[in-house]
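Fig. S4 source data, part A: sequence.
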Amino acid sequence: MDGPRRDITREGVTAIDATWQHKISRNGDTSTIALSGELDMSVSDRLSQVLIDEVNRPGAITVQADIADVDFIDSTVINAFIDAFRVAKSHGHAFVVTRARGHVNTVLAVSGVLSALSNPPVPAR
């Protein structure tokens, strides 16, 4: 497969490739990007673009990255999360990582970013 396949659904955009998937759903000014699979340096540039595009989307005040179905992350993915957090904050908005579990939760905690990414300041409305 050349690059991720995009399927448009009623809930948002789904992208699928061999190691990871994302689905964007929107409810008012909150966007949720449900991520699944293994997130590492091979997908971090694409992931970063997905996160930043949604943070910059007009009307998106809060963007949540739901990572309950993510099995693996590395430091490049943590950097993508931090970049999205910073861009959101620069707009007075929020980016939050939700439902981290297992290895992923441990990696975020040990790297020292779990608290900041899980509990951002309330966005200005």
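Fig. S4 source data, part B ends here. The first helix runs from residue 44 to 56.
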